[in-house]
């Protein structure tokens, strides 16, 4: 599996379905407004499979996640919740499961493309009826 060069500084350009996504993951309204109205700068430092991923928000606030591909790491969500995750590399994309969503990141045409999709949870109970 190849490691793509992610290192760089990326300025927010556009989003799709931002409002729907943040509502579904339960982001507080103040964080929703902050994310919608600001120009986030994402800075990625990469040394082989070791990454430091920082999002800088206006006003001096930033969120940083450091991780090694294939190893469990302590992470934090956009909303500030701490959790543990294993970040993997699949087909040149960085892939991780956050508490309420699945996240991928890739470099495409010199741009950093991040996709977060909500994870559905289905629970089945054992049926008393067999066909």
Indicate the proportion of strand residues. over 45%
Number of helices: 2
| Proportion of residues in helical segments | 10-25%
- Mean residue pLDDT: 79
Radius of gyration: 17 Å
GO cellular component, one term: cytoplasm
Keywords: Cytoplasm, Lipid-binding, Transport
Organism: Ceyx cyanopectus
Protein name: FABP6 protein
Structure description:
- This protein has helices spanning 18-24, 29-37, and strands at 8-11, 41-47, 50-56, 62-68, 72-76, 82-86, 88-90, 93-97, 101-108, 111-118.
- The protein is globular.
- The mean pLDDT is 79.
- The protein has one domain: Beta Barrel (Lipocalin).
- The strands form three sheets. It has a four-stranded antiparallel sheet with strand order 1-2-3-4, with no helix packed on it.
- It has two helices and ten strands.
- The longest helix is centred in the first third of the chain and has 9 residues, at 29-37.
- With 131 residues, the chain is mainly beta.
């Amino acid at each position: 599996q190849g490691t793509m060069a992610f290192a760089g500084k990326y300025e927010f350009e556009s989003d799709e379905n931002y409002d729907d996504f943040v509502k579904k993951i339960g982001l507080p309204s103040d964080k929703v407004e902050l994310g919608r109205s600001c120009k986030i700068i994402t800075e990625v430092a990469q040394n082989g499979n070791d990454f430091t991923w920082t999002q800088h928000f206006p006003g001096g606030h930033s969120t940083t996640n450091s991780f090694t591909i294939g190893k469990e790491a302590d992470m934090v969500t956009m909303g500030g919740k701490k959790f543990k995750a294993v970040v993997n590399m699949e087909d040149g994309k960085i892939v991780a499961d956050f508490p309420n969503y699945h996240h991928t990141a890739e470099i495409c045409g010199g741009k950093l493309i991040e996709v977060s999709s909500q994870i559905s949870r289905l629970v089945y109970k054992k049926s008393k009826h067999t066909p």
